[in-house]
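Tutorial handout. Part one gives the primary structure; part two gives the three-dimensional structure as tokens.
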Amino acid sequence: MARVYVSSTIADLKKERQAVIDWLVAADHQVVHSYRPKSETIRESSLDDVDTCDLYVLILGHQYGFQPAQDNPQGLSVTHLEFRRAGRSGIPRIALVRTSIPDVSLSDMEDPERATLVRAFRAEVAREVRPAQFSDLAELIGGLSTGVRAELAKLPELEKLDKQRLPPRRIFLNYRREDTGWAAGRLFDRLSHRFGKDQVFKDIDSIRLGDDFVDAITSAVGSCDVLLALIGDRWLSIIDRDGQRRLDDDNDFVRLEIEAALTRNVRVIPILVEGARMPRSADLPASMAKLVRRQALKLNPDQEFESGVERLFRALDMTIDEVHKARGARSL
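Part two.
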């Protein structure tokens, strides 16, 4: 568990600020955000608290914020002062920078003087750290998750505690070796590095000798938070020795896994590999028809593979947190 200071303006970033706090709390971190709007007592309300934290998170939009007069000869905003204080104190800084302006009325960009302050602050952040850009909550949480984990990796004691306290993030890889075997292998390595090898289930590689294949698959899928269904060009058409399409076989493992996920309300994310298209419901067994209504992600080889994996990581962070939050609400 890390002690994390969350810094932002308030009026324009309410949802974003709350989303960041919710994610940190769900990950069992201690959140500090003691700044009170338009408070003149900078040192008591914020700057001293920054020094007590392990990590500093900045959410930066297009509003500069309140500029207190006390002990502030440069006329900087509280958020700007907090950012500099964390830097001077050697506290790792994670910056999440909004690229869009959803509501111009809540920004300072129509006021030339304040817009200059905003641009200068954003430029300073870009120089001193590597900010993650976001335009929606999914990208925000993706950047936050990546940043927190990267900084914790530099703090071994905190990283160890963080891994112990994070809820399990079980991910099931569904694929055919003949169709998307290469993608499954590379994705398994990346997912294992990110979430832990024991959190990624990959067909027979994860089934013990002597276990009933169907029972093991069904149980594993049901225990997972997300199933990733890798779909290539041959996914629909691959046949067995008798010339029958595999998807039409009730005991086909790819079909069994997807059916189990859909039946048990496990979140399913189709992954379209190397330009594959989403199948039509008419091409699928009735028990799998709901698959076509799931939002898919595209994954291509070479340089595009890494960008696709990063998009997937952001989606998984957001999705799994939603799953755990809903599961916690049901248990109350």
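Part three, for discussion. The first strand starts at residue 3 and ends at 8. DSSP finds ten helices and ten strands in the chain.
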